[in-house]
Amino acid sequence: MRRHIGIAAAAAVALGLLGGTALAADPYKIAHVYGKTGPFEAYAKQSHVGLMMGLEYATGGSMEVNGRKIEVIEKDTQLKPDLGKTLLAEAYGDDDVTLAVGPVSSGVALAMLPVAQEYGKVLLVEPAVADSITGSAWNRFVFRTSRNSSQDAISNAVALGDAGNCVATLAQDYAFGRDGVAAFKEALAKTEARLVFEEYAPTDTADFTAQAQRLFDALGKAEGCKRKIIWVVWAGKGNPLGKLNALNPGSQGVELATGGNILAAMAAYKELPGMEGATYYYYEIPKNPVNDWLVAEHQKRFSAPPDFFTAGGMAAGIAVVEALKKAPSGDTEDLIAAMEGMEFVTPKGVMKFRKEDHQALQSMYHFKIKVDPAVAWGIPELVRELKIEDMDIPVRNRK
Where in the numbering of this chain does the Leucine-binding protein domain appear (predicted)? Predict the structure, then answer.
């Protein structure tokens, strides 16, 4: 009888061990909730390719961390805020994901933030940019690898902030554009340049003639200007830079300026040699082993260099793996503790999640456009790297 009890107990222990091993081998499930279809489809594709390459790079090609597979579940928001909320809730609730990454649109991101708080799970925002994501709408479950509007604005203000420069802005009339101009205005006020006019246009604007006339008129009335500049902040279709340039701003003494963009959009920059601005990423600028790998592998797999949002997606993938290494349980509180203040190496070099608002601090790049007939886009040549310590990025989540 005792022998049978002993065998049964040993069998129970063995089964328990096997069960524990099976549990440990369960995959980490990551939801990528992003706008695969719609006006930002090109951004979305780059972001997903980058995310998968980041996971691959950070795991040495195994797609495993802590002995557990990483499983990525894709969900298409179609750039609809309500759908984004529903899909994120589905990912957290029905799919029981460890964390989620995305989305592309700032408007969709803002709708998704409360869902992360409701379910008490991490949302790693990439590539949505609006300041309010890690500002007024932020909660402690939200982290962001993408740059925010303040980082865009401060770096561009540095590039355009010389004494005697008069600047007018053109932006989309939604969170991305409004936040971008607000941050730019604040940053430019700390330079010797001045902002003289703000113009906003619907996101689906195709004809910018009326907006251009108001901008030209405002700059024409500005006095004491050494240079008159229209700074454009735009995402998606419409090509406002090309449309404005077609109206011959030079004849009125007006220059155009903007930040970096995807390679297809920078085809318009070929008409603007010497244009200055600041960018988040261009594949030839960062010099480090991570970017070397990304450029070489992307060229090999897609016969093209990595683009603006590919680098961002890769940064998110690397951040996910580094966080899981520090918090193997995948528990939300463990992840938050691991990620606050976490430094990780990306194609742009070191990024750091600021503890106060979970925004990734990172380098930006002041550029001047060079034109090469053999290259299909205007090349943003590096003027200088603006490092983390060179930019005072405000914490905007104070209520």
Answer: 27-370
Give, in order, the Cα–Cα distances in Å from 273 to each of 205, 219, 385: 25, 22, 20
Structure confidence at residue 397 (pLDDT): 87
State how far the Cα of 63 lies from the Cα of 70, in Å rounded to an integer.
6
Question: Taking the CA of residue 339 as centre, how many other CA atoms within 13 Å lie in the half-sphere pointing to its CB?
Answer: 32
C-alpha–C-alpha distance, residues 312 and 145, integer Å: 7
Count how many domains the chain has. 2
Q: What is the mean pLDDT of each run of 10 residues along the chain (399 residues)?
A: 46 47 74 94 96 98 98 97 98 98 95 98 96 95 95 92 97 89 92 97 95 97 96 88 93 94 92 94 98 98 98 98 98 98 98 98 97 97 94 84
> Is 243 inside a domain boundary?
yes
Q: Are residues 141 and 177 in the same domain?
A: no
Is 62 within a domain? yes
Name the helix (H) or strand (E) containing 64. strand 64-65
13 within a domain of the structure (yes/no): no
Helices (H), 94-239: 106-119, 149-160, 175-188, 209-221
Asked if 190 and 257 sit in the same domain, the reply is: yes
Per-residue confidence (pLDDT) for residue 5, from 0 to 100: 45
What confidence score (pLDDT) does residue 69 get? 98
Bridge partner residues of 99 (DSSP): 30, 122
Residues 291, 296, 299, 302, CA torsion sign? negative
What region does 207 belong to: left with phi over 0, alpha with psi -120 to 50, or beta?
Answer: beta
- If asked whether residues 127 and 160 sit together in one domain, one would say no
**What is the per-residue pLDDT for 399?**
55
Same domain, 40 and 170: no
pLDDT of residue 237: 81
Identify residue 215 by its one-letter amino acid code: L
**Same domain flag for 313 and 369:** no
Closest CA to 245 of 195, 209, 200, 197: 209
